[in-house]
Amino acid sequence: MSTGMVTASTSTAGFTWPDDDLSRAPYRVYTDPGLYATEQERIFRGPTWSFLALECEIPKPGDYKTTYVGDAPVVVARARDGSIHAMVNRCAHKGALVCYKRHGNVREFICVYHNWTYDLAGNLTGIAFRKGVGGKGGLAADFQQERHGLKKLRVEIYRGLIFGTFSDETPPFAAYIGAELAANIDRVFPKPLRVLGYHSQILSNNWKLYAENNKDSYHASLLHVFHNTFGVVRPNMGGGVKISNNGWHHLSYTQRASLGDDEVGREKVRSLQEQYRLKDPRMMEHKLELGDNVTNAIQTVFPSLVVQQILNALAVRQIQPKGVDRTELVWTVLGFEDDDEEMKELRLKVNNLVGPAGLISMEDGCVGGWVQRAAKADPDATTVMPMGGRNVEASQGSRITEAAVRGFWKGWRECMGC
Amino acid sequence: MRLDSAPIDRDLALRLRVEDFYAEYAQTIDDDRLEDWPGLFTEHGTYRVTTRENLDSGLPLALIYCDGRSMMEDRISALRTANIYEPHVYCHSTSALRVLGTSGGEIRTRANFTVLRTMSEGDTAIFACGRYFDQLVEEDGRLRFRARLAVLDSRQVDTLLVIPI
Questions:
Q1: For position A257, what pLDDT does the model report?
Q2: Number of residue pairs across A and B with CB atoms under 8 Å?
Q3: Is residue B165 in a domain?
Q4: Order of strands, edge to edge, in the sheet holding A84-88?
Q5: What is the pLDDT, as a whole number, of residue B67?
Q6: What is the tens place of the pLDDT at every residue in A70-81?
Q7: Is residue B39 within 8 angstroms of chain A, CB to CB?
Q8: Within an 8 Å CB–CB cutoff, is residue A101 touching chain B?
Q9: pLDDT(A220) > 90
Q10: What CATH number is attached to the domain comprising B41?
Q11: Which of B61, B75, B84 sits opposite A348 (nearest CB)?
Q12: Number of domains making up chain B
């Protein structure tokens, strides 16, 4: 039973990284509620950009969508002049959710609890019974309406992706991830997007285990054996890992070394082992569409966004922490506005490979939970991540490295101050 | 006046056949006879699992989209040989079955489903609930799905979805 005492933990509560080695993380980082609370302040409300929504999800004035930045509920809206705004979805009066639907279209935001009203940029525009009734009641004389809007986030749009930050110190988005990694977003989302659908996955693990998993190109061919079993044989499969200068963000990609004229277009698929041939390989067809020979590209934006190109399956994945040992992974699956029916059909088939039921990715849904279950017993023991060195160097030609995972921990420690 | 019972008898007979087929579908999965699952569909039959959110928004994405029996067979062989997951079993309950209509040899039906999932450590929990929208045809003297759409009420899948719904 609760004692009713609330401890606002905004420190790292005596936590220090065991030594200056990025290749070991104490299990406590996945299980300590105090660190989780500190992450909310120093990472999610700190100098980081969080993905909020896509421009194409709120095309018309008054359109809004709700989401989360860490634990904070956030609403993203398009105002009358077309500008996009993001606010904490919490009424300035009593703290109720102002929007309790996932999306919609409104003239203004009205909190249903006491009818406090906000414009689409989050400014407080109306208060019910502000002058009372019959000359009695009403607002306190010193109440300053202009100081009681919804809490606003800074917003930036990059290639149709809407980002928000609580901090004035966060650099502009392109500088935040660096030119080399921004180029991959340019590459994957070169033209107007269309949402093909949504799904989400509940992971019984700390959010960081999934964030790490995406940066861990070492595990891909080991845990996800669908590729090896039914795999695609492509000549000269190459690739590498790019890491931002500060280590926080990464891109892991595979590509075919060269393109012959006869290879442009649909690629035929065959299996490594004849007995494990796919009976219907249409879900592994790849129509080259991005102007290069990259087949897979997984990109992370610290702390909580994954940009995905797996063949023709494009998506953004948003990592939403839901407590120290629970995470919701929200997938927004994309195509382009100008896709024809054939292209749309191809994307829908290729999406069999990814998502909660994805043939090459479903294991990511359970493996984090296995770490979480095992980590709990021994918070001071550590993981060991020495693959590819001790630091955060990029890797050309090999994806057998944990450098990007170490980069994640570098970012985490810098934000957390420990 | 004497009511003609023939149409009622026909409807009832069809309903019992559909009910029995639904039970066969559920038990094929729940008894882990997954290799028999694709055979419950026609050769070019489709199987899709989507969410209420996608369906209501007119969004085409499915979590699972098998276009033809071969893709279903690929899903099952992947689950047996490649995919890694904690062992678990389902218990399907199907209810509120309705035969919506028949035309051109096709029977349109719908029903509700609930799937309880029991993990190897013993936890049993509601894994999914929602609605089936189906098109059935008779082939070789038995019913088969020409199309089965399973619509999950929730957008959230706990951990992963590997065994068909």
A1: 60
A2: 122
A3: no
A4: A50-54, A161-165, A152-158, A84-88, A72-78, A63-69, A103-105
A5: 98
A6: 999 999 999 999
A7: no
A8: no
A9: no
A10: 3.10.450.50
A11: B61
A12: 1
